[in-house]
Amino acid sequence: MTNKEVAKILRNVAASYAIKDERKFRFQIMAYQRAADTIEHQSSEIRELYEENKLDMVPGVGSSIKSHLQELFKTGKVKHFDWVTKGVPKSLFPLLDIPTFGPKKAYRIVAELGLKDPENVINDVEKLAKKGKIASLPGFGEKSEKDILRAISEFRQKKGKTQRMVLPYAFDLAEKVVNYVKQSEAVIKAYPLGSLRRMMATVGDIDIAVATKNPIAVIKHFIAYPYKDRVIEEGSTTASILVSSGRQIDLMTQPPQSFGSLLQHFTGSKNHNIHLRDYALKKGISLSEYGIKKKVESGKLKVESFDTEEKFYNAIGMDWIPPELREDTGEVELAIQHKLPNLVELSDIKGDLHIHSDYPIEPSHDLGHDSMEQLLEKARKLNYEYLGFSEHNPSVSKHTEEKVYSILARRKEKIEQFKSNNKDVRVINLLEVDILACGHLSLNEKALSTLDAAIVAIHSSFSMDKKKMTKRIIEGLSNSKARILGHPTGRLLNQRSSFDFDFDEILDFCKKRSIALEINAWPTRLDLPDTMVRQAIQNGVKLIINTDSHAVWQMNLMKFGVAVARRGWAVKNDILNTMHYNEFIKWLKG
DNA sequence: GCCGTTTTCGGCCCGACTGTTTTCAGTCG
Predict the structure, then answer these.
(1) Distances (CA, A) of A120 to A104, A140, A356, A581
(2) Does nucleic acid strand B have an atom less than 7 angstroms from the CB of A270?
(3) Model pTM greater than 0.85?
């Protein structure tokens, strides 16, 4: 059962409570919605957390929801959920997936029109709307009927937030729109915020904050964006549009003197903001994008403004919190105690160890596009101290063992030349070696002896059971040349979920052998995922951030790997490739 | 139903926008 499916079940419970008695159950509704939100956006699988007995780690999951989830995973259903959803037409649940449909609207439509078939309810609503049957219902009208038809159509085309973007795509889109927004003279500052600023692995929509003294002019300019599909909403301080690629862009404005609180509000996350505001309430102050509302002596409410985020956080009584940490997983408490970690930064990185050149190694998988010389030149520009070449191992099915060895021996000669000629960027002889289904590495000892060390990784037979996969990985890591576990979970964002393995066991083994886990910065990997990075660090396991570049330009993707490390609370010491060359080599050679 | 730097009981974030309402409900972030 995926996180999305679990979240959907919890949302259905919240909706059922809302239909039965919204006032009576208002706090249950909030609790179930919050749990659904956090589970849906959790970067580790909730099912695995259940198996590892770590459901408590999920914010918003308390004793009650935890026991319901345990029942769900054990038996496939939950008695309490059946009780709550009893009497609520099942046909309304599919409608909740469509933006602009909430529990009330969905319920009134299926109840008034007698729609009972959950399989076809979306089609049924569409047909009836086309016949004009919705506009005549109480509380609905011509406009809302048209809006329903459009919402269904956009939902089918996966427009809006139904499909999440990988980070670089979101970056490009945000940059385009921000550049356009800045063309308005009324714009003083404009930044992309939301999950993009928090550097989440995937981004649902683009949020832009604008400092201006003339919000009406800014919004008028914004909604005239040339690649706009339609305006979703347009108010006096905020607006939302859908662009032709189907993505949603939200814009919020504040005057410059209260821009700091807008940055804070619009960066989120939602749970972070709720925690912050809850904490503030207990101090008798109230937070919003406008600033901090306090009672003054006359008994009247007064809003204090903040032009920077730092001042805003400080005024609540805590340190400024890096956006990557704002997920309500302990950062607020530490900010109050002035004990936030000093997160690793891009400028700390001194080398990239996972680089595929075009060296003719006749690999099992894909070859790089650029030469070792070109890649080294790029490393110089990035001010790296070292660079590790790590093509895929030569194909073992197409070559004899002797042939594999001779390819690697020749490659070693070339790399040795670099080693003696290059003193500014030191070269390291690595290779990305497959861990075969049986647990053996795809190269024999003689072939491995040509290398300084190996990045080992899974590239086949992903659907093994958990025990076998864990054993396979540990066997692969047992070879003394294996120093780095490459893209450890094997996930591909929006394509393939991670394979099943016992992470705790891998962590134990890596800790014992001083083996590093890779944070692969490739945008559809971002593997290890951030929550597992944090777990690795808590267990004293070190990490290496690599780009897995197959071309020169891809070496710029390092920032996305650093972002994952920061979201996993990594400081400089946790990341091995922040070390100088001599220290790094010392670790690498074991 | 969750949660804890005045709490294990008694609170629960804050505001914008839209449509169909003549004063607000529903949805969203």
Answers:
(1) 19, 22, 50, 62
(2) yes
(3) yes
How long is the CA A29 to C1' B19 vector, in angstroms? 25
A328 CA to B11 C1' distance (Å):
19
- Which nucleotide is nearest to A339 if distance is taken from CA to C1'? B5
Q: What are the DSSP E strand ranges found in A312-381?
A: 351-355
The answer to whether the Cα torsion of A163, A167, A170, A174 is positive or negative is: positive
Q: CA–C1' distance A530–B15 (Å)?
A: 31
Tell me the pLDDT tens digit for each residue of A442-476. Answer: 999 999 999 999 999 999 999 999 999 999 999 99
Q: Judge contact between A203 and A181, C-beta under 8 A.
A: no
Which residue positions in chain A have pLDDT lower than 70? Answer: none
A123: enclosing H helix or E strand = helix A121-130
Residue A293 CA to residue A589 CA, distance in Å, equals: 58
Instruction: Answer yes or no: is A414 CB < 7 A from strand B.
Output: no
In DSSP notation, A24-57 reads TTHHHHHHHHHHHHHHHH-SS-HHHHHHTT-GGG
A436 vs A438: CA distance, rounded Å: 5
CA distance between the termini of chain A: 40
Task: Tell me if A103 sits within 8 A of A15, measured CB to CB.
Answer: yes
Q: Which nucleotides of B are covered by protein (CB under 7 A)?
A: 1-3, 5-7, 11-21, 25-29
Strand blocks (E) in A344-479: 351-355, 386-389, 426-429, 432-434, 454-457
β-pairing, A516-520 with A543-546?
parallel
Q: Which nucleotide lies closest to A84 by the C1' atom and the CA atom?
A: B1
A579 CA → B16 C1’, Å: 49
Determine the Cα–Cα distance for residues A111 and A334; give it in Å rounded to an integer.
49
Q: Is the CB of A59 under 7 A from strand B?
A: yes
